[in-house]
Write a structure and sequence with these properties.
Length: 292
C-alpha cells in the first residue's frame, strides 16, 4: 500500500469537493459539472479514477454525461467522483438538494449520518456486516430504506472494486476487514431499497486486450490500455480524444468482448435516493478517512 499516494489522492478529492459544491446550482448542465470536476482533478495533478457519476433522483449510479448530454441539474443530485495517483484511489460522493425539498434534505442527512456512524465503528478486523448493520439502522431511524444490493468495497492499486465488499445491511456474513483501503457508501431511499439495471451508461471497463480487426477499434483499445488500464472510463472521454468515430470503435470492442459496458442503476420503484461516500485506510491501530 502506498499511503503517501492514497493520502494525496484524498487531499485532491477534498479540494475538488470544496471547489465544485458552490458551482452546482439548479439547471447547470451535468456535462459542465462533470468536466469541471475532472478538469480540476487534472489541474491539481491527479487523474480521474472513473467518470464522474451524476445521478438525479431515482438514478442511483452509473450515469455520466455523454459528449452531447443536455441534461440540466435538478432534484436530488448525487455527485460521485474519484481521484487516482499511479492507480491509488480516493473514491467519494455527496448529494445536493436542488429543489428546496424537506424530504431531499432528510434523505441526504440520513445517508451522511449513516456514513459517519459507520466510520465511527471501523477498526482493524471489524466484521463488515457490523458496518452494514449500523448503516441500515441509521437510515431506517429516519424512516427510509438502505439500498441493499449496492455496497462499499475494498480498493487496490488500479482496482476500484477489489476483493471485499462492505454491505449496506446486516448480511450475516463473517468477513473481517484487514489492513487496506476501503470505500464506505450508503444510499438512503424513500423506496424499497433495491436497484435494477437501466439503460447503457457509456461507462466501460477493459476486460480483455485481445486483438481486434477494425483500425479505429485498435486505436481506441491501445489508448484505453495505456490511459485507463483496469479503471473505468467513458465514451465522452474517448470522443474528446478521437471525435465521434470513437463510438464506433467502442461498439466494436464491446462486440469483440474486449469491454464490459455498465448499465445505469435505477431505484426499482423509481423513488429518490441520496448517497454519501468516503475512502478510509485501515492500519494497525488506526483508521484514516482520506476524503474528509
Ligand atoms: Mn464512488
Ligand atoms: Mn465506491
Amino acid at each position: 500500500m502506498n499511503k503517501e499516494k492514497i493520502t494525496k489522492a484524498g487531499e485532491i478529492a477534498k479540494q475538488v469537493k470544496e471547489y465544485i459544491k458552490p458551482l452546482i446550482v439548479k439547471d447547470t448542465p451535468l456535462l459542465e459539472i462533470a468536466e469541471k470536476i475532472e478538469n480540476k482533478i487534472i489541474e491539481l495533478r491527479g487523474n480521474p479514477a472513473f467518470p464522474t457519476n451524476l445521478g438525479i433522483n431515482e438514478i442511483v449510479a452509473h450515469y455520466t454525461p455523454s459528449h452531447d448530454d443536455k441534461t440540466l441539474a435538478h432534484g436530488l443530485l448525487k455527485i460521485d467522483f474519484g481521484v487516482h495517483i499511479d492507480g491509488w484511489i480516493a473514491d467519494t460522493a455527496f448529494s445536493i438538494d436542488l429543489e428546496n425539498s424537506e424530504e431531499n434534505k432528510k434523505l441526504i442527512e440520513a445517508s451522511e449520518k449513516s456514513l459517519e456512524n459507520a466510520i465511527k465503528i471501523v477498526k482493524e478486523k471489524i466484521v463488515a456486516s457490523e458496518i452494514g448493520k449500523v448503516v441500515q439502522e441509521t437510515i431506517e431511524s429516519y424512516g427510509f430504506s438502505s439500498i441493499i444490493n449496492l455496497s462499499g468495497h475494498e480498493m487496490k492499486q488500479h482496482e476500484l472494486h477489489a476483493g471485499i465488499t462492505i454491505p449496506n445491511f446486516d448480511d450475516k456474513k463473517n468477513v473481517q476487514l484487514d489492513k487496506g483501503v476501503y470505500a464506505i457508501e450508503p444510499f438512503a431511499t424513500t423506496g424499497g431499497g433495491r436497484v435494477r439495471d437501466g439503460k447503457p451508461s457509456g461507462i466501460y471497463i477493459l476486460i480483455d486486450s485481445k486483438n481486434v480487426r477494425s483500425p479505429i477499434a485498435r486505436e481506441v483499445l491501445q489508448y484505453i490500455t495505456e490511459e485507463y488500464q483496469t479503471l473505468p472510463f467513458c465514451s465522452r472521454w474517448l470522443v474528446n480524444k478521437f471525435g465521434t468515430r470513437a463510438l464506433l470503435g467502442l461498439n466494436q470492442l464491446q462486440t469483440n468482448g474486449n469491454l464490459h459496458h455498465f448499465e445505469q442503476l435505477i431505484e426499482s420503484s423509481g423513488a429518490k435516493v441520496s448517497q454519501a461516500e468516503h475512502t478510509i485506510i485501515i492500519e494497525k491501530g488506526s483508521v484514516t478517512v482520506t476524503t474528509r
